[in-house]
Structure formats: structure tokens, C-alpha cells
């Protein structure tokens, strides 16, 4: 049996949008590392070389991050990341990346698999919550986060960094 | 309320009651097992509990080819590797675990390593990453009524090198058969009965309130609470009462099923940290922290705590308490149970009565925030919140 054209198209669109959001999520990490003390402190506590892969679904695009001297850097790929968070389906990833489900809600709903130490993943989760507070408007974050983190950095500066990388 | 999405699994077959142990060989037979490795600890061997199991399961069709009884209270990766080698050396084909949480978690680790055909269990650390693998028949016989490990998808194993407790989460960790027999808990001392019983209550309460809660886990949680309400004090006062012991074993398993599917939150996150740093028995930490953490979570969980009053206090109290007061009353009942158990058997009510030192608060709080249980707590928790809870519980 073949997958319907409608489903194929739907998946293509969801993967494309997810890839774009993953890119901005990375920029969000860079921006908050620069401007928000809480994210900087979290990431500075990671060992140098510590790596995380956030994958949309098995064999689908991912965001690979590595702790370096500069803070956090995107990698083209990671063969054996310290933490692998892999969504069980593109649709589950889409829910999270488009701000309709928080990371804690996704964990609670068994929406992803996790390889690596859960305690190390907790630090990453705290960072994602803060990044989401900057990237998404409050009416969204109020729904998906248990508590919306305060924004200590200037929102315009942060958005400028996310959009234009400076 | 039905969640937008949830998952639930309780795949273990449960044998509960009279001559339950005697049916294990038949169960293993149906699972095509012929050569059993028994895992337990020294105390259970010494007091004869292990022999009771050996006597009950020995039949012509089943050979007990080996036993390993050196499992310490905090089992480690090294122990699992040692047992895995023993299993292979003796050419076993199944595992029977007789013990508390540590023994059963060790058995889960051994089974997982064998089933996944790995040399190092650390390769499997994580959440829902492993596939079904080779089936190793596995029977769990709990000898305490608290951890619920015989019904959960979690195994906690100590990495001695890094002094860290590693969490393994997979539905394939759940034993094939869980056996509840009052002979296994009848000799449990009063204080341990109280401590483990409060742990079971904590599993049920957190299971009923954490983010993964769902109608199935709720059913198990509330039934467990009712059984604990009616039997915990009796079990502590008269441990020889077989009916009460069996009831508590059932409650513990049901609470285990509840939290295995909805997970545990703040109380366990802090409790794990206290256990790791101050080496306080898990049940003691749960008992002390439970009312304080419930008070902290109350503004988010008022409805859930209010509903729990029916199960923890009974219909008369529930009906005569105004909605506004029900959540507080539930917490009051938990507190009263703790004080009553303190009166009967000396269960600690404050952290200051345990090994916890005030100077360790910062480390405990940091470790608690990194605990996986924190993610499913319904209320956001920060460093200062944990410190405040610790201060109040001290």
C-alpha cells in the first residue's frame, strides 16, 4: 500500500517548517547564551564537547549542538551524541516546534525517546523553556510552560540576534 | 478529564494470595523456562525468606541452577555485570528476583543487558530507547510493600565511578510475572513496613497528580490509596496479619502501576537527591517530604487533592468537608498518618531526625532540579523553592 499524496505533502510541509524552526531554535540558544544569565550558567556547566541531538523523527532532520569554548555551536551531524532526543513522529515534533506542546508535556505524552543521562537532559530542558519564552508570544508560552520564565534580556536585541545573527 | 493523548501499559501478570509462590514454576513453564537464576540479598537468605521461595518453585520441570545473594541496598553496574556473567556461565534461561526495589531493579538491569546482548549496561541508559530484544523470562517477588518495582518500567542503578544513579526507562523492563504472597512480607519490621508503606502512598498520590496522569493510572492510584488507608497502620501494629500484609502488597503494586504510567514528581526528585547525598532510606525521605511538597504544589493541584480526600479519609469526611477545605484536609490526613506512624514505630517526621545536614541543602537542591522526576511535576520548581521545602521539612 502506498502513502497518500495528501499525507506525503503534509509530511513534507511539516518537515520543512520544523527545519526552519530548528534553525531559529539554535539562534535562540545562541542569543540567550549571550544575553540571558540563566542559559549561560546552564550551558557553562556542561562539559566541553558535550553534545545534544534533537531529531524530528528517526531518519529525519535534526539539530546538533555541541558545547565549545565559545559556548554552543551547531554541528553538521553527530554520530554519538551525549543526549539524543528523537521524536517518535514528525507530527509530534511539529506540535512541539510550533509551540502547541511544551517539552514537559511532550515527555509526559511519550512523544520522544531519549538516549543518555536524564539528569543531563534536564539542563537542556530548562534552557529550551527559557528560549521558548523569548521566541514565542506569551499567549503561547502560558499554555505550554508550567511557568513563563522572566525575560531578563531585551526582547528586541534578542530577536535581532535570532533573525540576523548579530 | 481525558488527556489529549496518553499511553498506558501494565503488561505484568499478577499472582496474588495463597500459594501464589507455588504457581511460579507453572508460569515459568509456560514461558519456556527450565533453568532459573535466583537473585536476592543476604538478609532474605539469612531469615529464610529465600528458602521459602526455593521450596515453593522447585519442581521436576524447573531447575534452580544458581543463586546470587550479594545484592546491596544500592545495586551497581558492576553487580549487574557480575550477575550477567554468572547467568551466561551457568547457561540459565530465566530470572527470579526475590527482594525489595534494589534486587528487582538489579534483575531488570541484568535482564536488559542479556536481552539487548550488550556488554555494558551504560549503553542502554535513557528513556524508551531499547527495542524488544531477546525474551528472558522474568519473575519478580517483592519482599517489601512500597517500591512497586515489580510493576514499573523504571530501573535505577548506581554508577559507582561517578557516584550517580542512572535511570533506565522502558516498557520492556516490566517483569513477565509479579508475585504477591504475604509470606514474603510477614517478617518485615514495623518501621520498614511504615516507611515502605508511606512510599507506596507517595507513589499513588504523585501518580494521581503528575503530568502523565490518565484515567487508567488514576484508577490504580485511588484504589491503592484506599487500601493503604485501611491497612497501613494495621500492618505496622500487627505485622503477622496475613490479610493486611497481602492488602499492602496489592496497594504497593497498584501504586507502582499508577506511577509507572504517570511518573512521580517533586517529592521523589528531592527524595532521590536526599538519598544520594545523605543516604536517608527512600521511604523515610518520602514520608517526611510528602506533606511539605503537597503544600507547595497545592495551588496547582487543589482539585486533585480535593478529590483525593474521598479516598484517603473516606466518604463521611469527604461529604462533610467544604470543597474549599478538601485539599488542605487531604494534606492533613497525610500528616496525621505520618505522626501516627511516628508514635507507633518511630518513623521520622523531620529531616533533622535523619542524616540530612543543613550544609548539604544546596547540593540536594541542585541534584533535585536535575532529577528526571522534576519534569513531570505539574508546578515549576526552582532552586529557592527546594531550599524552602527543605527548611520546612528540617
Brief rundown of the structure:
Chain A has 166 residues and is an alpha+beta fold. Chain A has 7 helices and 5 strands; from the N terminus they run ααββββααβααα. In chain A, β1 (51-55) and β2 (62-68) form a beta hairpin.
Task: Please describe what this structure looks like.
The complex is a heterodimer of chains A (166) and B (394). Chain A is α+β, with helices and mostly antiparallel strands and 166 residues long. Chain A has a domain at 50-164: Nonspecific Lipid-transfer Protein, Chain A, CATH 3.30.1050. Helix content of chain A is 53%, strand content 16%. Chain A is built from 7 helices and 5 strands; from the N terminus they run ααββββααβααα. In chain A, strands 3-2-1-4-5 form a 5-stranded mixed β-sheet. The longest helix of chain A is centred in the first third of the chain and has 31 residues, at 5-35. The mean pLDDT of chain A is 94. Helix content of chain B is 53%, strand content 11%. Chain B folds into 2 domains: 13-184, Rossmann fold (3-Layer(aba) Sandwich); 190-393, Up-down Bundle (Dehydroquinate synthase-like, alpha domain). Chain B is globular, with a radius of gyration of 20 Å. The relative contact order of chain B is 0.11. Chain B has helices at residues 24-30, 42-46, 49-57, 77-89, 101-116, 190-209, 215-237, 242-262, 266-278, 282-313, 315-319, 323-345, 361-369, 383-393; strands at 13-16, 35-39, 63-68, 94-99, 126-127, 138-142, 154-159, 164-169, 177-180. At the A-B interface, helix 4, strand 5 and helix 5 of A face strand 5 and strand 8 of B.
Number of helices of chain B: 14
Order of helices and strands of chain B: EHEHHEHEHEEEEEHHHHHHHHH
Low-confidence stretches of chain A: none
Alpha carbon gyration radius of chain A:
16 Å
Shape of chain B: globular
> Percentage of helical residues of chain A?
40-55%
Helix/strand-derived category of chain A reads alpha+beta
Strand content bin of chain B: 5-15%
CATH superfamily of the largest domain in chain B: Dehydroquinate synthase-like - alpha domain
Biggest sheet layout of chain A: 5 strands, mixed
Q: What is the helix fraction of residues of chain B, given as a range? A: 40-55%
